[in-house]
Amino acid sequence: MLVSGSQTPSCASLRILKDAARAPDAAALRPHIRHHFQALLSDRGDWNLSIYDLAWVLCCDFFNEEDKRKNLALLLDAQHADGGWGDPSYMPHSALVDTLAATMALVRVGQPLPRHRELEARVEALIIACHDYPHHDTVAFELVAPKLLKWLERNQCTFPLSARSREFIETLDRKGDMKLGKLRQLGPLFDPGSTLSYTAELAALTPGLVDDVGQLPRTMLPNGAIGLSPSATAATILLLTEQGREVPSGLYQYLRDTFEDYQRTGFPNLHPIVTSRRLWNVRPWLVSGNIFDLVRDETILPLLTRIYQETNIDELGRVSWDTNNADLPDLDDTAVAFALYSVLVKAGVRDLKPMTSASLQRFQRKNGTFFCYPYELHPSPSALLHSVMSMDLAAGTFEEAFTSQPVNQEILRSLLEQLDPQDFDFDQLNHDKWHATWTYGVQKWLSLRSILFTYPERVRQMLTEVENRTKQGGWGQQEPTLEETAYVASGLATLLKYEPELLPNETEKVRELIRGSLRFLVQELQRPQVELPALWISKNMYAPRFQVASAVLDAMYGAMTLR
Predict the structure, then answer these.
(1) 512: which DSSP letter?
(2) Distance of CA 562 to CAs 33, 397, 407, 498, Å?
(3) pLDDT for 286-343, tens place per residue?
(4) Which of 337, 347, 344 is nearest to 283 (CA)?
(5) Around 38, how many Cα atoms within 13 Å sit in the side-chain half-sphere?
(6) Is residue 227 classed as helix, strand or coil in its secondary structure?
(7) 112 burial level (CB within 10 Å; 0-12, 13-18, 19+)
(8) What is the pTM of this model?
(9) Which of 162, 152, 156 is CA-nearest to residue 126?
(10) Are strands 2-3 and 530-531 parallel, antiparallel or unpaired?
C-alpha cells in the first residue's frame, strides 16, 4: 500500500521508487531513474488531497449533485475522531486552516457539524499550538485563518475560545490587515502580477473588501484559474454568484480540468504548476552534482533538455511556476532553471534558450539583498541557496569568462552576505517558508561549494548537529522519513566529494551515516505501506510525490556511487 498525505489520484512515482529499492548498485538503479523522468513528463498531477481546496469547491456551484454527494462524503470521511481535519503533526497551522475551511463548507451547504463538541476543543487546541510554534507560518496563514474564523462567527458558528486564543487570533488578524494594506499601497490588490491567490478567498470571507466584485475576473489566468488555485477559483465563483454577477466560463473550465486531472476525486492546493514540478524533480540532482552523471545518459539527457526548453522564461530571463502565471516569476524557479541551463551547456547541448546571471539580478533590491517574490514579508533562505548553487554551476561551465566579471562576483558576494549564519541557530538557518523541516535546508548547506568555502566552521557545526540527530539510520523533524533522510544523506555524500578538512575518523563516520541512510531508505521502501507525510507549505501542507521520489533516487544514487 502506498500512502502520501491524503487520498491521491496517482502513485506512479511511488511504484517506480519501490521498484528502485531492489537495485543492488548504481548501474541497476539507473533504469529506474530513466523511468522516473519519463513518467514525470507524462504525469498530470500527483499531489495529495487538499481539504482546504475541496472545502471551497464544495461551497460554490461547480459540482453536479452526484459529484457533490461523493466529495462531501470524502470531506466528512477525512474528519478525525478529535473533531478536526488535516495533519497537525508538522505544522498545526495547516490543520487549523483545513479544519476551519471544512467547517465553513459544511455550514454553507447546510450540513450538520459532526463531532461538534470535539471540534470546538480541537480548534482551541490548534490555535494554541499555532501560537507556540517556533518557526514560520504557512503561506498567508495570518490572512486566511482569522478571516475564516470571523466568517464562521458571523454565521452562527461560534467557538468558545480562551482569552489567550482570542488574543492570538486578533493579533494575527491585525497582522494580516497590515499586509493587505501594504499590498494596496504597492498596487492593485487583485492583480495576477502582484499577489498570490489568497486574496480571492479573503474577498469571499470579508464584507466590503472588494469595491467592485466585477474586477475579480481580471485576475484570471489564461487557463481560467485564479492564482493556479482551486480554492481561489472556487471563492471567486462563489462571490460572483452571491452578488448576481456573471461567472466567466473559464473559471468552471479550470475546475473541470483540474478535477479530471485528479481523476474526479478532490482537488490539490495548486495546479498545474508544470514548470515548478519539473524543475523541482531536477533540483536535488543539481544540488548534489549527480546531475553530471545523468546528462551522460543518452536517454535522460533529452528529457532534461526538454524540461529546460519547455520552461517558461520571460523576456527578462525570469521563471514562474507555470506558463499560465508568467506575470508572477520568482527567484527560486529562476535560479534552478539557470542552474539546469549551465549544466546542459556544459554537456554540449546546443540551441538552448539563453540565460545569464542577469536573471537573478531581477530579484535584487537596491540595498543588494534578494527577494523570492515581490512584497514578501519573510525571505526564503532556500531561494538564496539555490541562487548560490546556480552561480557555482555557471562558474563550472563558463569558467573565467564568468567568474572574472565584476557583476557576477558582486551577485555571489551579496547572496553569501545575505546568508551569513552569524546570530542564527541551526533550526533558524535551515527552516524555510516553503518546507516544514530543517532537512530541506541542511542539504544545501552541506552541498554547495561556495557555502562550504565561505562558512566552513558553520558547516562543520551543522555536520555535528546532523550526526546527533540521526535516528534509526535516518533523519526527520520528528521520526525519520524517506524525504527528510534523502535530503540529509544527499548533502553528506556531496560534502565528501569536496574533500573537506575532515580527520580520517570523521570521514569514516560520515561514510557510516551515508551507508546507514541507504539501508534506512531501502528498508522503508520495502514496507507494505510507504509513508510520505505532507511536508511542503502552501496555505496548507502538501506532498508532491514525484519530487520527493526524485530526491530519494538522488540520495540512493549518491550513496551507491560514493568512493
Answers:
(1) H
(2) 17, 23, 36, 12
(3) 999 999 999 999 999 999 999 999 999 999 999 999 999 888 899 999 999 999 999 9
(4) 337
(5) 10
(6) coil
(7) exposed
(8) 0.95
(9) 162
(10) parallel
